[in-house]
Design goal:
311 residues, alpha/beta, 6-stranded mixed β-sheet, 8 helices
């Protein structure tokens, strides 16, 4: 993780891929409520001083503490947000009842159509989940681009980016995969990536994304910070699996398509990258498939497990 040259923004650079592809998550870190003012009751001073005491008062002994102090542990709110979030209590999420988009990655416009239709289905499923969990739902924006991106604020140097409520997808990556590799792998990769970035949007709506960034900023040591990053990224991949698992009968996710998706998530690790931000391919497969099999966000509490499970 590094702080960018833009004030108030934290960028998380992610490396996830069979090849050296990357994703970035950026979140604006600003106070939501602005400055807080408080009023204090004022007592006027008496016009004449009270009469002096003629006897020396007996000092009152300081009482011994009889219970725990009232100090709030550091990051208590953030820890509750990531560990005990209402998202984990909603149960199996509803199926969007959407089929896989029929557009194929043969042109930028068709890539855009695929992601636009997929995003509509993701919104349909997750909107109900957010309401049941007690959070406000708002759909993310989508920008599918080719060539050099115009938005430099979000540092769009990767194939898939979630930044300030916008999902950015680089169509050039999909076009290259369609031309050079297995077209079915291209489809499973596209489905995984858009749902993974949407997982970050779910984290943003539930407060998990911001709380995890805060925890990471207060952790001492690079290795420990990378563990926190992997918890966040593996949860997004798990939530990607949750959506697909809920909709598998309608998508449909079965047969050869499902076999290729399992291969895809089993081979998207960061073990080749010195910046271990996303997790080894074995753990990536484990969390993605756990989400798929459960179709329940409760299966995605990556913050409650030992570091070895998110290595």
């Amino acid at each position: 993780m590094r702080k960018s040259r833009w004030s108030g923004v934290v960028l998380i650079c992610a490396a996830l891929g069979v090849t050296a592809t990357a994703g970035v998550v950026a979140v604006r870190r600003t106070g939501a409520d602005g400055p807080v003012t408080s009023s204090v009751a004022t007592v006027s001073a008496p016009t004449t001083p009270p009469q002096a005491q003629k006897t020396t008062p007996t000092p009152t002994p300081t009482p011994e503490p009889t219970g725990p102090t009232a100090k709030v542990p550091p990051l208590a709110a953030e820890n509750r947000t990531v560990l005990q979030n209402p998202l984990y209590q909603v149960g199996r999420i509803p199926a969007s009842k959407c089929k896989e988009p029929t557009s194929r990655a043969t042109s930028v416009s068709k890539v855009r159509t695929y992601y636009t239709q997929f995003l509509s289905c993701l919104n349909k499923a997750w909107a109900q989940v957010m309401r049941e969990a007690g959070f406000q739902f708002y759909p993310p924006q989508l920008q599918v681009y080719s060539g050099k991106p115009a938005n430099q604020f979000c540092n769009l140097t990767s194939t898939a980016v979630y930044c300030n409520g916008i999902i950015y997808m680089n169509a050039d990556y999909d076009l290259k995969n369609q031309r050079s590799y297995d077209p079915l792998w291209t489809r499973t990769t596209m489905a995984f990536l858009i749902a993974h970035e949407y997982g970050h949007h779910v984290q943003a709506m539930t407060g998990i994304l911001e709380a995890s960034h805060t925890r990471e900023n207060h952790i001492s040591g690079k290795d420990a910070q990378l563990v926190e990053s992997r918890r966040r990224e593996l949860q997004a991949s798990c939530l990607s699996g949750v959506y697909l698992g809920a909709d598998k009968q309608f998508f449909p996710a079965r047969g050869t398509w499902l076999q290729k998706w399992r291969w895809t998530v089993r081979n998207r690790g960061d073990e080749w990258n010195p910046q271990r931000t996303h997790g080894h391919k074995n753990n990536h497969s484990r969390w993605s498939r756990a989400g798929f099999e459960a179709a329940d966000p409760a299966a995605c509490n990556t913050f409650a497990v030992k570091a070895a499970s998110v290595s």
